[in-house]
Amino acid sequence: MSWREDAKKRAALEAVKNIEDGFVIGLGSGSTVAYAISEIGRRIKEENLRILGVPTSYKTFLLAVECGIPLTTLNEHPELDLDIDGADQVDKELNLIKGMGGALTREKIVASASKALIIIVDETKLTTSLGKDQPLPVEVLPFALPLVMDKIKRMGGKPKLRERKDGSGPYVTDNGNFILDVDFDIIKEPRSLDADLKRIPGVIETGLFIGMAEKAYVGTKTDVKILKK
Ligand code: 5RP
After folding, report:
1. Which atom of ligand 1 is nearest to the CA of 107?
2. pLDDT tens per residue across span 66-115
3. For residue 161, how far is its CA from the centre of ligand 1 (angstroms)?
4. pTM for the structure as a whole
5. Atom of ligand 1 nearest to the CA of 98
């Protein structure tokens, strides 16, 4: 296992210790969360942990089922005790860029329904400035694509339509939408950028998670650091 995979796994395992019996939890998406999901499955089997999970993507849904995690919905549980998710960038105030895995909209909905959001990352995700060497994923209604791209360009962003890895066409989210990966360079005012983007008709959601995370478990080469807001 590479040091990064090892760091991701250690961060995930530490974060899962926050889950208590009876919790209803949000299950984020991505390769780091996958370690958390299998650890939750282990705790269910070996420690008789009783929890319910709300998945943020079909991929997470399938993995959670495979790991024996009982699932629920926001209809049944509109308030969650805890949400554990990954991130693509984390600044020192625990503001985040998320969405390279394409699940940003459901992830933000689930995070907003949770009493606490814990982020799990390896240390390469830490940044001094959001947007530095990192595009901002923005989920867009396909019908509105050209208009949204034009408006984003006028705001100073360089939008690029995300393609499927096999080159067979645009990447489509679990919600049937497209993703624009937008280069804004360093994002000085993330909160107002998020609000400005959300005002464009056809923008479903942005990958800026501002003031939402309470703690971040950061896997380093040797240990796990806990960052608090
Ligand atoms: C998906 C996400 C992921 O949490 C983010 O991309 C991090 O993924 P990974 O743990 O694989 O690096 O936001 O929409």
Report:
1. 14
2. 999 999 999 999 999 999 999 999 999 999 999 999 999 999 999 999 99
3. 18
4. 0.97
5. 13
Tell me, yes or no, if 107 is annotated catalytic: yes
Whether the Cβ atoms of residue 194 and residue 72 lie closer than 8 Å to each other: no
Residue type, 32: T
Query: Distance from CA of residue 12 to its chain's centroid?
Result: 14
Q: Which residue's CA lies nearest to atom 8 of ligand 1? A: 30
Catalytic residue among 107, 123, 189, 214: 107
Q: Work out the mean pLDDT of the chain and round it to a whole number.
A: 98
Could you identify the residue written with the tokens 């590479």? 2
CA distance 125 to 113: 24
Residue holding tokens 């393609």?
163
Q: Which atom of ligand 1 lies at the shortest distance from residue 99's CA?
A: 14
Could you tell me the distance, in angstroms and rounded to a whole number, from the CA of residue 61 to the centre of ligand 1?
15
CA 145 – CA 223 distance, rounded (Å): 43
Least Cα distance to 200 among 149, 131, 157 occurs for: 149
**What digits encode the pLDDT tens for the residues 31-63?**
999 999 999 999 999 999 999 999 999 999 999
Surface-to-core class of residue 26, CB atoms within 10 Å of its CB (0-12 exposed, 13-18 middle, 19+ buried): buried
